[in-house]
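sry for the spam today, last one i promise. struct tokens for design, 234 residues
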């Protein structure tokens, strides 16, 4: 079972998994609301990617993040947590849950999942690709919509590398939580040096840096570097 299979990450992961597996997808885009839809099927594995993302929007719509991230996830845990392995999308933001509602919702998902022995929270770091998620830094940079940069350090992970990591984790027996990133954060202002730098950005972490030890033990080493990617793209 793959939730959020129409989304930015889910749609790419679906292309890979469906080659050798029978995948059942659930997505709100298809009218499948995980908060209310009947869930009676049994699954060997659940990959839960559905939910709300983004720090800025969560500051204005905190209730949406509480409901769509935490409450929906708790329903999946109630139904499947005791009998099914569950890999779910967490975030590097969960390391500092006090900063914004998005981070808090992801941290509380991890707390809820900890009650079940076969769950793994995947702390995605900043995901990018040539067709990035709308409204995020990379999309604005590529489409010349960027107004400013910041003095934050971010660990950027390419979408293809992220999906490589998830495929490895499907075969693993890891539980608890795990970082998925490069371990090499870069200064945002260095990626777009011709833009003004905004210093005060409420609710944001100053630095994200993945601990790569666990992923490296599975043989995972990212293929993409953000600086080289941008040079090729330009």
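last one done:
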């Amino acid at each position: 079972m793959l939730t959020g299979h129409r989304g930015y990450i889910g749609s790419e992961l679906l292309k890979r998994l469906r080659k050798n597996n029978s995948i059942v997808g659930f997505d709100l885009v298809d009218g499948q609301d995980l908060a209310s839809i009947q869930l009676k099927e049994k699954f060997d594995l659940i990959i839960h990617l559905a939910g709300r993302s983004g720090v800025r929007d969560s500051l204005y719509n905190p209730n949406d993040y509480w409901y769509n991230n935490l409450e929906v996830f708790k329903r999946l845990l109630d139904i499947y947590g005791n009998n099914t392995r569950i890999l779910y999308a967490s975030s590097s933001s969960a390391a500092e849950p006090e900063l914004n509602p998005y981070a808090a919702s992801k941290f509380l998902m991890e707390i809820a999942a900890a009650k079940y022995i076969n769950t793994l929270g995947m702390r995605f770091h900043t995901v990018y690709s040539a067709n990035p998620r709308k409204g995020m830094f990379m999309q604005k940079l590529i489409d010349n919509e960027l107004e400013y940069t910041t003095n934050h350090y971010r660990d950027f992970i390419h979408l293809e590398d992220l999906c490589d990591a998830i495929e490895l984790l499907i075969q693993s027996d890891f539980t608890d939580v795990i970082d998925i990133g490069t371990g090499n954060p870069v200064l945002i202002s260095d990626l777009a040096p011709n833009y003004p730098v905004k210093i005060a950005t409420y609710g944001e972490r100053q630095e994200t840096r993945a601990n790569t030890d666990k992923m490296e033990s599975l043989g995972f080493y990212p293929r993409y570097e953000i600086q080289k990617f941008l040079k090729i793209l330009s």
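The first helix runs from residue 8 to 17. ok im logging off now
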